[in-house]
Design goal:
522 residues; alpha/beta; 5-stranded mixed sheet; 36% helix; binds S-adenosyl-L-homocysteine
Length: 522
């Protein structure tokens, strides 16, 4: 009997899906955990809250169902019971469900209640912790929540509770704060959801013996481009919040550690702090630009609009590789071109040694670096990454030279034309294609329309074309800065009705970030 029923259970649970309660982190999309990312990649359904950064949703598969269940503290879009039921229903349909919550699901996120529902319904589930805003928002404001000299005991407290004892109900879960104990019993106090109730919080702490000169900081939208910090003391912070109109969501930090901010600010004093920057490069290439932007304090949001795909046919490239020893030069115009050739050589049972013979030219440092990584020395890199410089600086007279250029199908004709004008014999072979990435346009379009994107970066003509095709020109509001890697990309932007505000002088991603920095420093 026992065996029969456990068999039944096994069959049932195989048919059911699974729910992952995933912490999305405090905001900065880079602060999602690797495990959380894996779950998102697999999810059929993503159920998410207001505090989840929209860029994180881009990690879901394009066909995943995204369900917003809201929850600003005042206007609940969906009641908690409805959310619980939704999770159960979707799992019962056999779906893999990611329940994505701001910060950590078990830190004032009602993750515990959702887990209880899943247990009661017999649904398989897992919790993937996230970085809580309670610690990360102060950290990004330069405030370590503990410090050997100032704090050995830390409390994380809900600020949602009314301090007025008259409004409390007997047994109310939210009326359990022991003000007399925490006011002086803990060194650092962190209040979540505490902005509206701040006057009561400060009153209770003062009434229960905390020193009025204790420093207090409020960090709003911590770790995001909108991060703002307000510093005061227990005596005056409530008034400062009222005067400045400081709004939620914010973390309130009470304690001497707040004074460390002066010394330890590291994030909100960087040149590009406060700028949310769209990175439109391919998924593989985005990370380099994102890292540079992040180092300057910007918040990169990756929106890959292009993908590198094999050419429709390898005939041209294969034929060129067969006669490789007849070429004087192999000229690579992009890192993608290098990788395409190496990948093809591998697929046909050859390797980089096959390229011996022609000298090797690389346009742009990223191209040169990709070649260098193969252990191959680059014989020529022009000082500027445009056709004119290639021709002018070519190390020998191009007349009569046979030059192979493996590149994208849709590339421009200027370089081969200029080389041919000088008498070179140029073979252009299609080695790869750039195609439009089926990516998550809706959350990005929404961010653009709400004015949450400050800068859009374009690093090639195809990124411009595909971007416009994916989100539409009309989604880009006035005032968004358009930054292009070089004049050709800028021209393409112009043609698509996006007036370039910044064009890099050096046509590299480093050059682009430098241009943004210069612009920001005014
Ligand atoms: N589970 C979440 C907290 C949810 S309660 C976590 O672990 O972070 C919602 C409260 O979290 C907000 O009222 C605010 O106090 C805080 N919060 C969440 N994200 C924040 C952010 N980026 N900056 C400041 N406060 C934030």
């Amino acid at each position: 009997m026992l065996r029969a029923s456990s068999f039944e259970f096994a069959v049932e649970s195989m048919a059911d899906g699974k729910v992952y309660l995933v912490g999305a982190g405090p905001g900065d999309p880079g602060l999602l955990t690797i495990r959380g990312l894996e779950c998102l990649h697999r999810a059929d359904v993503v159920v998410y809250d207001r505090l989840v950064h929209p860029a994180i949703l881009c990690h879901a598969r394009p066909e995943a169902e995204l369900i917003y269940v809201g929850k600003a503290s005042s206007q609940h879009t969906m009641k908690q019971e409805e959310i619980n039921q939704l999770l159960v229903d979707k799992a019962r349909e056999g779906k893999t469900v990611v329940r994505l919550k701001g910060g950590d699901p078990f830190v004032f996120g009602r993750g515990g209640e959702e887990a209880e529902t899943l247990v009661a319904a017999g649904i398989e589930w897992e919790e993937i912790p996230g970085i809580t805003s309670a610690i990360a928002a102060p950290a990004y404001a330069g405030i370590p929540v503990t410090h050997r000299d100032f704090c050995s005991a830390l409390g994380i407290i809900t600020g949602h509770e009314k301090a007025d004892a008259g409004t409390r109900r007997q047994g109310d879960a939210e009326s359990r704060i022991k003000w007399d104990k925490i006011a002086t019993g803990l060194d650092t106090l962190i209040f979540l959801m505490g902005v509206e109730n701040l006057p009561n919080i400060t009153t209770e702490l003062l009434k229960n013996g905390r020193d009025p000169s204790t420093p207090v900081a409020l960090v709003r939208w911590g770790t995001r481009a909108e991060q703002e910090t307000l510093v005061g003391t227990l005596a005056d912070i409530a008034q400062k919040v009222r005067e400045t109109g400081f709004k939620s969501p914010a973390v309130t930090v009470v304690g001497d550690v707040v004074n460390l901010r002066e010394k330890l600010r590291w994030f909100d004093n960087r040149p590009l702090f406060g700028k949310r920057v769209l990175v439109t490069r391919s998924r593989d290439q985005a990370s380099g630009l994102s890292a540079l932007l992040r180092e300057q304090g910007a918040e990169p949001v990756e929106f890959p609009v292009i993908r590198i795909a094999p050419p429709e046919s390898y005939d041209e490239l294969d034929a060129a590789l067969d006669r490789i020893d007849t070429y004087d030069w192999a000229l690579f115009t992009s890192a993608n071109g290098v990788r395409a050739v190496i990948d093809r050589l591998r697929d046909i049972g050859r390797d980089v040694r096959w390229l011996k013979g022609p000298r090797v030219g690389a346009i742009g440092p990223a191209t040169a670096e990709t070649i260098g990584c193969l252990g191959v020395r680059v014989d020529f890199t022009p000082s500027k990454f445009v056709a004119e410089s290639v021709v002018e600086e070519f190390p020998e007279d191009p007349a009569g030279k046979r030059i192979l250029i493996p590149r994208a199908k849709e590339a421009r004709e200027v370089l081969p034309e200029k080389l041919r004008e000088k008498g070179a014999q140029v073979d252009i072979v299609t080695s790869y294609r750039t195609v439009i990435e089926e990516s998550c346009a809706p959350p990005i379009r929404e961010m653009l329309q709400k004015g949450e994107i400050d800068i859009i970066t374009f690093t090639s003509s195809s990124t411009v074309k595909n971007f416009v095709q994916l989100v539409g020109r009309e989604s880009v509001p006035e005032g968004v800065t358009i930054a292009c890697i070089g004049p050709i990309t800028a021209q393409m932007a112009e043609e698509h009705g996006l007036k370039p505000d910044i064009v890099a002088e050096e046509y590299t991603i480093e050059g682009l970030v430098r241009a943004l920095r210069l612009e920001a420093s005014g």
